[in-house]
Amino acid sequence: MKKIALAMLFAGVSMMAADGKALSAKCVACHGASFEKVALGKSAVVKGQKAAAIEASLKGYKAGTLNKAGMGALMKGQVAAMSDADIKAVAAYAAGL
Questions:
Q1: C-alpha–C-alpha distance, residues 79 and 1, integer Å
Q2: Residues 2-54: pLDDT tens digits?
Q3: Could you tell me the sign of the dihedral formed by the alpha carbons of 66, 63, 23, 85, in that order?
Q4: Phi, psi of 70 (to 5 degrees)
Q5: Which end of the chain has a smaller Cβ tally under 10 Å, C or N?
Q6: For residue 43, which phi and psi values (nearest 5 degrees)?
Q7: Of 79, 85, 86, residue with least CA distance to 62
Q8: pTM
Q9: How does DSSP assign the chain, residue by residue?
Q10: From CA 12, how far away is CA 25, in angstroms rounded?
């Protein structure tokens, strides 16, 4: 019985984990489906960056302390509702492409 309960607990936790691909759907318009585009002709290409660097950038935009290429205000609005787990999931997904 304990094994079944543990299996159900782990299944529930994994289902609640942030889905980087789904969360990044709003990024596609500017960054491309594989994060291969220079967003609005200003940003660096995200594809090929390490997850830690992407996560740091997203957290900087969310905090309002980062303004790469004048994109700070726009990006702050894009990531404002993301939790730290969401940001980590998007960063991992983008880095894995």
A1: 42
A2: 555 444 444 444 445 689 999 999 999 999 999 999 999 999 999 999 999 99
A3: positive
A4: 75, 20
A5: N
A6: -85, 165
A7: 79
A8: 0.82
A9: -HHHHHHHHHHHHHHHS--HHHHGGGGHHHH-TTS-S-GGGTSPP-TT--HHHHHHHHHHHHHT---GGG-HHHHHHHHTT--HHHHHHHHHHHHT-
A10: 23
CATH code of 19-95, in short, is 1.10.760.10
How many residues can be counted in the chain? 97
Burial environment of residue 49 by CB neighbours within 10 A (0 to 12, 13 to 18, 19 or more): middle
Q: Whole-angstrom Cα distance, residue 61 to residue 74?
A: 9
Output the six-digit token pair for 7: 């299996």
- If phi > 0 it is left, if psi is from -120 to 50 it is alpha, else beta; for residue 18 that is beta
